[in-house]
Fold this sequence. Notes:
- Two copies of one chain form a homodimer.
- With about 350 residues, chain A is α/β, with parallel strands linked by helices.
- The first copy, chain A, has twelve helices and 14 strands.
- In chain A, α8 runs parallel beside α9 (about 245-255).
- The relative contact order of chain A is 0.16.
- The structure holds 3-isopropylmalic acid (2 copies).
- One 3-isopropylmalic acid (IPM) sits at the interface of chains A and B.
- Chains A, B: It catalyses: (2R,3S)-3-isopropylmalate + NAD(+) = 4-methyl-2-oxopentanoate + CO2 + NADH.
- Chains A, B: InterPro entries: IsoCit/isopropylmalate_DH_CS (IPR019818), IsoPropMal-DH-like_dom (IPR024084), Isopropylmalate_DH (IPR004429).
Amino acid sequence: MTKKVLVLPGDGIGPEIVGQATRVLDALIADHGLDMAYESALVGGSSFDEHGVPLTDEVLEKARQADSVLLGAVGGPKWEQFEIAVRPEKALLKLRSELELFGNLRPAILYPQLASASSLKPELVSGLDVLIVRELTGGIYFGQPRGIRTKDNGEREGFNTYVYSESEIERIAHVAFRAAMLRDKRLCSVDKANVLEVTELWREVMTRIGKEYPEVELTHMYVDNAAMQLVRAPKQFDVMVTGNMFGDILSDCAAMLTGSIGMLPSASLDANGKGMYEPIHGSAPDIAGQNKANPLATILSVSMMLRHSFGEEALADKIENAVSTVLDQGYRTGDIYTDGMKLVSTTEMGDAVLAAL
Amino acid sequence: MTKKVLVLPGDGIGPEIVGQATRVLDALIADHGLDMAYESALVGGSSFDEHGVPLTDEVLEKARQADSVLLGAVGGPKWEQFEIAVRPEKALLKLRSELELFGNLRPAILYPQLASASSLKPELVSGLDVLIVRELTGGIYFGQPRGIRTKDNGEREGFNTYVYSESEIERIAHVAFRAAMLRDKRLCSVDKANVLEVTELWREVMTRIGKEYPEVELTHMYVDNAAMQLVRAPKQFDVMVTGNMFGDILSDCAAMLTGSIGMLPSASLDANGKGMYEPIHGSAPDIAGQNKANPLATILSVSMMLRHSFGEEALADKIENAVSTVLDQGYRTGDIYTDGMKLVSTTEMGDAVLAAL
Ligand SMILES: CC(C)[C@H](C(=O)O)[C@@H](O)C(=O)O
Ligand SMILES: CC(C)[C@H](C(=O)O)[C@@H](O)C(=O)O
């Protein structure tokens, strides 16, 4: 049956980079037998400008009906003046939560062709390939109660609740252990179990689920140490699993270690293989509309979609190989440009990938 | 009047490194007119082993009476089996909270003599000098309610509360702005105001207090981006201010950027200049008792104490100069050793500092 994909370009550079990713989809549909149809809709700031909310019920319903979602990026300074409830980011959070996309996979891979882009010394990062598994629909992002209230003494206080139930921890544990089984079979669970009770439970449940995966070597690390170890010796890690907030911080840190966040895709999966796929980078309002942004992370998000949601391994490989080819050929957008390479625009990079497909 | 200092060596390498720091104190008292007396007490795992609690009421009372506290490090795998309430780390948290040491100063400085120890490329870190100001007695570390409870459906859930009141934010804001005034007058406040209401209030209060310091350039950054920017271009920062949990993660990340966490001291201050001073590194149980640990972070913590609590700028400078001298002379403990340098033990490093005083 024809797979249905909802495409949500979003804000800033979103439409430009998603534009190149849908060209790739078009090519796969036309020439490589991919049985897929997609439609586009507004999300984030562009939805807010049009409809007064960052995600309309109609678009949410379309996302529910779709087999998967491809998203560009949302947000920008233009909307920072509004309250959290209607900001572009809220659309992301609502999609994650309503679609129960609890399993967020964030690979941090160093492309050999881009090795010199890393801030770290080459020997520390060459061959880097870490997968961060972040819980995406729980933790302090969604915990209740939350808000800003006035205390008895008249001053205000802000409060949020960091909460995880056993079943929430169990299901993300399975995602992480299964991912580790397909890789080097090493899983590092990150918590702050020496201070926070919620992560004491996290550690206990991880340990228990670990017994179902005796081949996987499970270790535990405090989040402060994990941030240190990522900088000191990132190659020590295979798969890392952590909660929503720590995962937000550590996955961005790990991504930046590669020096090329314009290259990194991500997947957010529900229990049945449906997913939302998006680049790890943001909406880069400073270069929006200039045909400068790197579309490769979004194109690689398509590859993750084909692999994780549609079982189209061969087509996923085809995209990854094409990306590797254009890097070998020296094509570079501004964010990954180094001396001697060919500086290209967003659309030219799309052209190059299509040619290499 | 004679200043009273409580010395808490703690666990692991704690006693060894503090031993060298008190030799420095002894020398300053004997030969340089420092009017100070100190006594030592058990804390952390060593207190737990002796008294069943990581911090006795008696030691807490001594800490209250003292003008400042010098601490080594606490914790180790030996005590990880016990519940959070009696673990060594609890002593630290209780001291911070009971003494109201809300202002945590964590400098991340790259020593030119140790430049090659950083994971980062030299041009990105040479001359690095970032000060992280971390709120230390509030936030999710201390928020109520907290614990592990059983839900109606029979499964357990862990929960913690992330909370800040306006007055808590105001006082750490003043610490940070004052620190920025003494430096490059740039302050970056780190929050997650696009998701967490508590940090929305944080941002609002920081902005308001900033108006009292018009000379300081205040910027705001989301914590995930801050973790990225620390890896990408750490020299963009002068002073950073953030809450307890984010500060725990970011200060360790920043410290590791220098490649020499064995060199970094910290101060935890109350509103009146009283402080607890300790190295940023942990208790390193793997090398405890081997006379291998680097005592310089603890010795530099003494220097911070003299500067921040006792106004002894000249003696503080003397210690810092002595540390610089021993580095110039090529003395290195194992953690900072590189080819061609002189590998020394903990006590030999102490000897070298005393000779250089
Ligand atoms: C935009 C923001 C709400 C989001 C998050 O914090 O999860 C982003 O940082 C991410 O990591 O996808
Ligand atoms: C030991 C631990 C409780 C402590 C903390 O999390 O604050 C430590 O990591 C630190 O940063 O001083």
